Amino acid sequence: MDAQARYELFDVIGRGGGGVVYRARDRALDRDVAYKVLRAAFSTERERVRFLAEAQIAAQLEHPNIIPVHDVGTTPDGDVFYVMKRVEGETLGERIKQYHSGSADAGGLIGLLQAFRGALLAVAFAHDRGIVHRDLKPANVLIGLWGEVLVVDWGLARPFRASRGVGSTARDAYGGALTLDGEVVGSLKYMAPEQARGEVDRVGPAADVYALGAMLYAVLTGHSPRKASTLQELLAAYTRRPALPSRRKRGAIVPPGFDRLTLACLEVGGDLRPPDAGIMLQMFDSALMSGLKGEQGATASGEYSVEIPADARSSGESRALPPFPPRDASPDLLTSVDDFEGLEDPVRA
Ligand SMILES: Nc1ncnc2c1ncn2[C@@H]1O[C@H](COP(=O)(O)OP(=O)(O)O)[C@@H](O)[C@H]1O
Ligand SMILES: [Mg+2]
C-alpha cells in the first residue's frame, strides 16, 4: 500500500517551525497515528534532509519516554513525512498552565513532577546515546491520558560525539550547524546561553540541562525563569539571576533541594550545571527523596547527597560522557543556594 493510500489525514494537531502534524488513520494497521509532514513547496532540500534526520533520530532512540516512529517516506509530490504514535492528551505546557492557574488540585503537582521526570529519563537516555535535543520545552513533552510521557520534536537534535549508531544521517545533515540561515534556532525562554549566542561547539548535554532546569522552574512556579521575547532581551536576562522557585510565586510548593537544583541547571557559564541529564536525574531523585523524608532544605555544605564525578565537568564536543551510573564520587558541586547569589554571570561577547 503506498503512503497516500495507507494514511488518511484528518485535522491539524500541531504546527511549528518544523512541519505540520496531523491526526491520521493508518488503514493498514487500522489505528490512529500522528503524521508529521514537511511540504516540498515550503521547504528546501536541506530542510527535507534534516527532517528525515529528525525521524531517524527519534526512531533510533527507542525508549518508553521518546515518541515511537512507525514509518517514514516521501510522497510523489516530494513531501517528506513520518508517522508516529499518536498521543491523546495534553502537553506539559498546558498542564503547567492548568495547575498554576488554580484549576488543578495540589495532587496536580505530583503529576507535573512525574511528567517532568519522564522527560528527564528520555533526555538522560538520549545523552547516553550521544544525542542532544536542543529544543526542550513544555510544548515538546506530551502527556497521554494514562499518564504516559513522551518527548517529541527531535528536529534540532544532533550527535555531540561519536555515538553508538544513532544519528549518522543527522551528522551529515547538520555538520554541526546550530543556525538555520544564520538565525538562532530553539525556543527563547528555555534556551541555554551558549545556544542563544550561537556558540555551536559549546552546545552539548549541559545546554539540554539548562532547558530542563527552565522547564522544572516552570513546573514549580508557573513562570519561565528568564522572560524574553527577543534574542536581545534574552541576552540581557542572562545577566540577572532568576528568583528562587520557592520565592517566585506565593504559596508555591517547592520540595527542599529543588531551589538549588533548579538554579544550578540555570547557571549561565555552564560549568556548574549538572553536566548531563543522567546526573540531573540523580539530583532530582535525591531532592525528591529528601522532600519525602521531610528534610529541611539542604543548604549547608556537605548535606546534599548527590555527588558529581570529577571528570564530568568539562563541556563541549570532546567531552566523554561520564560513566552512568557514575562510579567515582567527588565533593558536592553545589554547596549552597547562596553560592549563586554572588555569582557574576556577565554575558560574554
Ligand atoms: N505524536 C503526537 N501526538 C499528538 N500530538 C503531537 C504529536 N507530535 C506532535 N504533536 C503536537 O504537535 C505539536 C508540534 O509538533 P512538533 O513535532 O513539536 O513540531 P514542530 O517541529 O513544528 O514544533 C506538538 O507541540 C504537539 O502539540
Ligand atoms: Mg515543537
Folded structure, characterized:
By secondary structure, the protein is an alpha+beta fold. The protein folds into 2 domains: 3-85, Phosphorylase Kinase, domain 1, CATH 3.30.200.20; 89-346, Transferase(Phosphotransferase), domain 1 (Orthogonal Bundle), CATH 1.10.510.10. Helix content is 34%, strand content 16%. The chain has 12 helices and 12 strands. The strands form 4 sheets. Strands 1-2-3-5-4 form a 5-stranded antiparallel β-sheet. A 3-stranded antiparallel β-sheet has the order 6-8-9. Strands 7-10 form a two-stranded antiparallel sheet. Helix 3 (92-100) runs antiparallel to helix 4, helix 4 (107-128) packs antiparallel against helix 11 and helix 7 packs across helix 10. Bound molecules: adenosine-5'-diphosphate and magnesium ion (MG). Adenosine-5'-diphosphate binds at residues 13-14, 16-19, 21, 34, 36, 67, 84-87, 91, 139-140, 142, 152-153, 155. The site of adenosine-5'-diphosphate has 21 residues, from strand 1, strand 2, strand 3 and strand 5.
Q: How much helical structure, as a percent, in the residues?
A: 25-40%
Q: What is the number of helices?
A: 12
Shape: globular
Termini distance? 55 Å
* Helix/sheet category: alpha+beta
Mean pLDDT: 82
Order of helices and strands: HEEEHEEEHHEEEEHEEHHHHHHH
According to CATH, what is the topology of the largest domain? Answer: Transferase(Phosphotransferase), domain 1
CATH superfamily of the largest domain: Transferase(Phosphotransferase) domain 1
- The radius of gyration is 20 Å
For the sheet with most strands, the description reads: 5 strands, antiparallel
The low-pLDDT segments are: 175-183, 298-307, 313-349
Order of strands in the sheet with the most strands? Answer: 1-2-3-5-4
Query: So what's the oligomer here?
Result: single chain
Q: What's the CATH class of the largest domain, please?
A: Mainly Alpha
CATH architecture of the largest domain: Orthogonal Bundle
Number of strands: 12
**What small-molecule ligands were found?**
adenosine-5'-diphosphate, magnesium ion
Number of domains: 2
